[in-house]
Amino acid sequence: MSITLSRINSSAATLTKNRTEESISPNSGMCVTCVDGCIGMCEIGKSAYRGHEVIYPQPFGVITTASEKTYPVDYSHFNIMGTAVGAHGIEADSDKAIFPNVNLEVAFGHDKGVKFRYPWIIPGIGSTDIAKNNWEGLAIGSALAGTGLTIGENVVGMDPESVIKKGRVTDTADLKRRVKLYKDHQRDGYGAIIVQANVEDTRLGTQEYAIEKLGVQVVELKWGQGAKNIGGEVKIKNLEKAQMLFERGYVVMPDPTDPVVIKAFENGAFKEFERHSRLGMVSEDSFAQRVEELRKAGAKYVFLKTGAYTPADLARAVKYASKYKIDLLTVDGAGGGTGMSPWRMMNEWGVPPVELHSLLYRYARQLADKGEYVPSLAVAGGFTFEDQIFKGLAIGAPFVRLVGMARGPIAAAMVGKTIGMTIDAHQVPVYVERFGQTRDEIFVTSGHLRKEIGDKEFETLPTGALGLYTYYERLAQGLRQLMCGSRKFTLEHISRDDLAALTRDAAEVSGIQYIMDYGKTEVEQILNS
To answer: How much is the pTM?
Structure first.
């Protein structure tokens, strides 16, 4: 039986649709009857007059995006297994083994010195408008919750106020602000602000600057992400900024210094320039050298993030992270993104999350069985809720310590920010108004958080931070309930046996037991005793 996994030629992401919405060719995505005289609502039609602009999801700057492709196996093809017997990580006592007593704290790094209250991290949001416009909520909310936040690529290079001398950054406005917002609200040593770097950031000395001038202790090397297999991109609406980025060495299209291009832009032929980052060229020697440089510069912890590349590339990441004692390796599955990724690439490129994370476990297990160092691992790629977090931790147990999420936290921060704007304007929507008119009434965590940090600090919090903090509180309670049901009261007790595969395909891909075979040996022992 043939199953179509991809949607082609029309999507909300590219603001396109078919004329014959009920009759569409599954192979091409075209209307079954494509007629002369159509104005071109589909992606082919829109490409006929806007060309390369239609490669990217729109409207840029106010959206995050993820693919529409249906993968053959995903995390919904697994169920979390519970039991009626015993407890792990707590006394098997009905008065003690209750879900509020589940401990979600995680410590990792070479000295276990990085401590999070919750087992998740935002694994890299950088120079996009969506990140910059919501940074207050993301930074303050993450810090208050005691989780990690990664400042992604190109923040320094995109900042018009960055001071760059002889090709190296000496001062910034945006990066300085981003780090300060997090550190000013960090509590009791929990959480971490991480500064990531791509090719351009490395050339600018961004991480050395962050370590020496901003007191950042954690840095991350970037081999890519799950959304695309090329460098980061953004769109630029301002000619002067496009020219500045061109002068700083970025790939800017079309050439903003070309008089013909300048005239076309001024005449309105196009309204946005594209800024692209370069591809990194990975080799073991250059990787080892860069890790050593960062440690000599004062980095206390060095992370690595990689994307949905080939199994051989994943093996390289695992092996290099082992050999050079990386503190955290994040592996991001295909299909999602927070910035501007080519839409077809996002749908059709890379290894999907379940397959990628299953390979990751296999490779980590192989090294561990040989007695080699295995770094703490994080998995990313479409995680949004507590059940998925549990499954991500379980599929890679005992090596996976964190789950990476970006789109979910950004959505929570954006909603919190928007609700705050409606409160200030005295125009709270009916859907929200039923809970109240003030932040204390609407945000359910307000009372608890106000008590913890005091009235004065609470009143200064942006509502974007309240949105993220409250979303995280929901995830934490939901995860505690799931762990309690599996009788696992600390994270280190989560195992692959806490999952069952619902299909033979999911079992074959992941190595997780098929549900009809689950615990077969124990079943036979019970029945034959």
So the answer is: 0.95
